[in-house]
Amino acid sequence: LAPTGAPIAEPPAGTVPRTRILLATALSGASVMVVELTTTRLFAPWFGASIYSWTNVIAVVLLALACGYATGGRLADRKPYPAVLGGILLVAAVLLVPAPLLARVLAPALVPRPELTDPASGTLGIVFASFVATLVLFGPPLAVLGAVAPFATRLLTDSGLSSGKAAGRTLAVSTLGALVGTYLPALLLLETLGSRATIFVAAGFLVPAALLLTGLRRRKAAAAALVVILALGGAAAAAAATPVVPATHGEEVLAEKESAYQYVRVARWPGREGQPSAVNLSIDEGILEFHSRKRDDPLTGVYYDHFAVLPDWIADSGARPVDVLVLGGGAGTMRGMLRALQGPRVAHVVDVEIDPVVAGFAPRFGGPPEAQDRLAVVDGRLALEAFPGPYDLVILDAYARQIAIPAHLATAEAFATVRSRLSRRGLFAINVSTADVEAPLTSALATTLRAVFGRVWSVAVPGSWSVVLLAGDPLPPSKAPAQRGDALDPVRVQFRRHFHELIPPDGAILLTDDRAPLESLARRIR
Amino acid sequence: LRVGGWRAAAIALALAAAAPAQDPAIDRARRALDAGDSASARVALLELLAVETPGRADAVAKSLDVFRDRGATDDWLEAAERWSRAHPDDALVAFYRGITWQDLKHLRRAEAALARARELAPNEPSVQEAWAWNAKLRFDAAGFLERSQGASFRGVEDLRREESARLAARPVSALVLAGLLGAGLLGATVFLLWRR
Fold this sequence. Notes:
The complex is a heterodimer.
Chain A: H1 18-47, H2 51-78, H3 82-96, H4 98-110, H5 119-146, H6 148-158, H7 163-193, H8 195-214, H9 218-241, E1 252-258, E2 263-269, E3 278-283, E4 289-294, H10 304-308, E5 322-327, H11 333-342, E6 346-353, H12 356-360, H13 362-366, E7 374-377, H14 380-386, E8 391-396, H15 412-421, E9 422-433, H16 440-453, E10 456-460, E11 466-472, H17 489-497, E12 499-501, H18 518-523
Parallel strand pairs in A: 5-6, 5-8, 6-7, 8-9
Antiparallel strand pairs in A: 1-2, 2-3, 3-4, 9-11, 10-11, 10-12
Helix pairs in contact in A: 1-2, 1-4, 1-5, 1-6, 1-7, 1-8, 2-5, 2-6, 3-5, 3-6, 3-8, 4-5, 6-7, 7-8, 8-9, 15-16
Chain B: H1 5-16, H2 24-34, H3 38-50, H4 56-69, H5 73-86, H6 91-103, H7 107-120, H8 125-137, H9 141-147, H10 156-168, H11 173-195
Helix pairs in contact in B: 1-4, 1-8, 2-3, 2-4, 3-5, 5-6, 6-7, 7-8, 8-9, 9-10
């Protein structure tokens, strides 16, 4: 060991205790995993959090680490000094800091303009853009971090460990660090700090790791660590104080939050040409807007209005009010619409939403549940087990990653459970986002619904990409009321005009728990 | 999406075809549908389609509205398809079948019916418009430009400009440049580590 009190800028090989090397390696492993798990969320407002975005992040991490392993091993052989490894860790920290700040500049610049693309090429563009953005911002720091493990192995070998033991211990502590780094964003950091500050935390891990190896005297090391951590804390505070996505086109951002599931944003949009303003809740990249409510207008002008008509198509709904289960209730728009427009024809509503942040917005933006209603923050499939009904109307309006119904909610097994929860007069209705009901996604959904329910009807929502799929036992059109003298009458006209039995083409996929490729089906529009 | 443009034009065309008199077959279809007797309604529709009068276009449009307003679009389509199989040269019925499927978001069936209508009436602006819109609704910008070439329906030039812009936006030069930048940064990092 170095003499006490003597400043050593670059100690010779083997002069740093093994525990320090191993601790630094563990911190580096934790940092890599925090970055890996947070990057998708950081880019989610522009690229979404699809399986493609995750794949791109993992691909860039693997590519960068592979580069880092190769170069790190070579460098360790040429300069096997702990201070060099400390410098590597500091460089990685410095490279990580600007990444979250540059993300909000680079990502929107790479996203294809939605008005100039279609869902298929737009999705491909987003997939490519997410890879490029991840590579530009996170490739270099992750490559530098890749150099840590082989370097640490060399230092441990120089300290007298056999090469086998050195490699084994390095990999073990690095993986244990990564294990901690895996849980930190999900359980603590993302929801409390947000994605940008979480990246700063990952950079912050590397500072003490570097100081453990630089050989600075204790006071200097502490002072340096304090300065760097204060700087990172300031950057994190600044990031937390600014919106994740800047306001555009006259919108007023009412709330935004990063939940365990997604980036959530509520904004008020000015109405066009004298129309009332609308409050929209959007998720991640916001290709589609959800939960639109307009001030002074009971109708949303979008697909919710068509779902509000559904109690009309349930036998005796006037005499016996209907019990409703909404899977994917969001901030309560569907429930609010049913209550406001169908009044006493609706008895109880069980509103199921998986994201507590979205559900938490209900009192402010969607309306709190009435005394006879229930708000359950749970996965839809679990809700079908936990709240067995029976229901007269089950609405599936759950979307994961914008364009796809969560796979486990759109399988023959899931539909069979729904059917078992329906009353004898019950209806099952699904909101499907599609421009063409003969496209593979809708055909697969219709095929699966027919396999479970026997018959399926579709109701195209005019001027939109929305289609209502209906299964169960709807009233024949001649029996459903055409007019009730309320705000829904124009919607009733449209509903009847677009109501027809859907017979999917032969050969469409039957979706099962074992195989339900909804994301790829949603991409295939032709 | 201005999905209603072709339909508005089609209805305007049909209404301009005169002969506003109420058709007894339409009345029979209406009464049958109100009574829940869809079989009789389909028979009445087939009778209506069989009558060649100057106001036939108007009558077909009205029959479609009667069926659709009663949630019986499937019955109208079933009868009309049966008619088209027996009378494949009836452009009017092929056209209305096409725009009805299009309105129900059945874009493939719509395309098949409209393709037939276009073969039979290539210069009819409503047919041209619906045929071009089918490509637009399927996000096929190149198809729209090809189908609307020389077409005369209202707003065609604006729509062609929109779709041309969509096509022009396809190149991903910015993305490629950014990708090269990313690869370059990664390469530079590796190079610097390698050279130390």
